[in-house]
Amino acid sequence: MLRGFYTAASGMIAQQRHQEALSNNIANANTPGYKADQATLRAFPEMLMQQMGGKSIPTQNNIKFPTRNPIGSLNTGVYVQEIVPNYMQGDIRDTGVTTDLALVNGTMPDETGSIFFTVQNEAGEVRYTRNGNFTVDGQGNLVTNQGYYVLDQAGNPIQTDGMEFAVSQDGNLQVGGQNIPLGIAYTDNANDFTKEGNGLFNGEAGAVPAGVTFTVQQGFLEGSNVDAMQSMTEMMEAYRMFETNQRVLKAYDESMDKAVNEIGRIG
């Protein structure tokens, strides 16, 4: 009886976490470069149930041997194993703003491979982003909307001196007669990255190797890859599953109430 409480409760907790991930996706449906979170559910280890008994052998000493009769397996519930971002390319839209840059995936030899802009957070640490919604700060540095420095290939902030600049499709920023390669990094397994908020990812990445192709489009932004309609449908399914587990939990509670108050009174 008590195990049923735990199984139903674990289902409710798992669906609640699934709902939270879906809600966050919908809230960021219009955030440039946002990668939708996907919750993966996994069952707890199953338990093999056996009936314990004994068998007496008609002998002078009446010997009794223990016996075990397999009943079957029992599932002990479900949990959210992890929440993994979906790194699929988002839609590319024209903004006409020269400081907006969009990374467009080309050839990726690894299915889980991805490319990112390299930026520097407030602690001076290197982070990665797909959000190319950049601007120029008061000191002439190319920065994200949160004020993080956009880095070049050498890992230094990009100084534009407030002048107009052009970006070629191979990722070279041209300003004041200088050619500055953008710090575009590649990882062969983006699933190892972790989200840190503000569109930043933390992980290990390096230079773009041979065989990996991409283009940089100036005046464009990569949109979120959230499918709002699908996310709403999944939210309804998760809500129904939550309600189902809630009804099971209520049924167990009513059965326990009868066992304690009615059957116990008769005894």
Short description:
With 267 residues, the chain is an alpha+beta fold.
Account of the protein in words:
Keywords: Bacterial flagellum, Cell projection, Cilium, Flagellum. The protein has two helices and 20 strands. The longest helix has 39 residues, at 228-266. The two termini are 19 Å apart. It has helices at 2-27, 228-266, and strands at residues 37-43, 47-57, 63-74, 78-85, 92-94, 101-105, 114-120, 126-129, 134-136, 142-144, 149-150, 166-167, 172-175, 178-181, 184-187, 194-197, 200-202, 206-207, 214-218, 220-222. It has two domains: 2-46 and 76-83 and 240-266, no CATH class; 91-222, no CATH class. It is α+β, with helices and mostly antiparallel strands and 267 residues long.
* DSSP, total strands: 20
| N→C terminal distance | 19 Å
The general outline is elongated
Q: Main β-sheet: number of strands, strand sense, barrel status?
A: 7 strands, antiparallel
Give the percentage of residues in beta strands: 35-45%
Chain-averaged pLDDT: 88
Order of helix and strand elements from N to C terminus: HEEEEEEEEEEEEEEEEEEEEH
Query: Which structural class best describes the helix and strand composition?
Result: alpha+beta
Tally of helical segments: 2
Number of structural units classed as domains = 2
Q: Which regions have little confidence, pLDDT < 50, spanning 5+ residues?
A: none
Taking Cα atoms only, what radius of gyration do you get, to the nearest Å? Answer: 28 Å
Protein name: Flagellar hook-basal body protein
Family: Belongs to the flagella basal body rod proteins family.
InterPro entries: Flag_bb_rod_N, Flagellar_basal_body_rod_CS, Flagellar_FlgE/F/G, Flg_bb/hook_C_dom, FlgE/F/G-like, LlgE_F_G-like_D1
Domain Flagellar hook protein FlgE/F/G-like D1: 113-174
